[in-house]
Write a structure and sequence with these properties.
Layout: H1 2-99, H2 103-111, H3 115-125, H4 148-194, H5 200-223
Helix pairs in contact: 1-2, 1-4, 1-5, 4-5
Length: about 230
């Protein structure tokens, strides 16, 4: 009788030890997975923060370049406008000299035209403007006329707009990296919270949610442009 009880007790103790070993093995596996989650989330958080900081710095640089281009465009536009106004005033004086039948004075005005305006003036004369009603109003309306200042201002303004848009895109990308930083912080929180629970179901649920968020965050991290 006593021998049978000893055998049954030994059997129960063996089963309990087996169950304990399985429980410890499960806990070890879960702890390894949680450590991996924590390590990956921590590295991803640091990388996201680094990219967000670089994006904000890049945005500031691009905005500064756009401002410089806009300032230079303003200077070039003023110079181009002043040159056009001077040529237009000389052209008005030339018309008056023509009306006064003073070819010598008219020739003086022509020599004072800027090179681009003089070339357009020559092309304008070929349209027979005094008898041709379809002729352009003046040299400034001719396709041959070029104002380097105004053209440079146009180019700089276009470059400033493109640079400003690039800076805005860099800012938006930096904001997305900041949001990813918050997401990875949530992963760290879920894993840390799950470790506080001994119930297998609760711990697995917290780990599953953390894994889903981590996977989404890593996908977004690799698909976002890097500065």
């Amino acid at each position: 009788m006593a021998e049978g009880m000893n055998v049954e007790l030994a059997h129960k103790l063996s089963e309990r030890e087996k169950a304990d070993r399985q429980k410890r093995r499960w806990e070890e596996v879960v702890e390894i997975v949680e450590v991996l989650f924590l390590a990956i989330a921590a590295i991803a958080t640091a990388w996201s923060g680094y990219q967000a900081a670089k994006g904000e710095g890049h945005q500031s640089v691009l905005y500064g370049e756009a401002t410089t281009d806009q300032f230079q465009a303003g200077v070039a536009s003023n110079l181009g406008g002043q040159r056009l106004a001077a040529d237009a005033a000389l052209f008005s004086a030339w018309l008056q000299a023509q009306a006064d039948k003073n070819p010598q004075l008219a020739a003086v005005y022509v020599r004072r035209f800027s090179p681009d305006y003089r070339m357009a003036f020559t092309a304008w004369l070929k349209t027979d403007p005094f008898t041709n009603p379809a002729a352009p109003p003046g040299p400034g309306y001719m396709p041959q006329y070029r104002n380097t200042g105004l053209e440079e201002a146009k180019r700089l303004n276009a470059h400033a707009d493109a640079t400003f848009e690039e800076g805005t895109a860099a800012r938006e990308t930096a904001d997305k990296y900041v949001r990813l930083t918050v997401l990875f912080a949530l992963v760290l929180f879920l894993v840390a919270m799950g470790q506080r629970f001994k119930l297998r179901g609760v711990r697995i649920a917290a780990g599953a949610v953390a894994f889903g968020l981590l996977a989404y965050g890593l996908y977004s991290l690799f698909t976002l442009p890097h500065v």
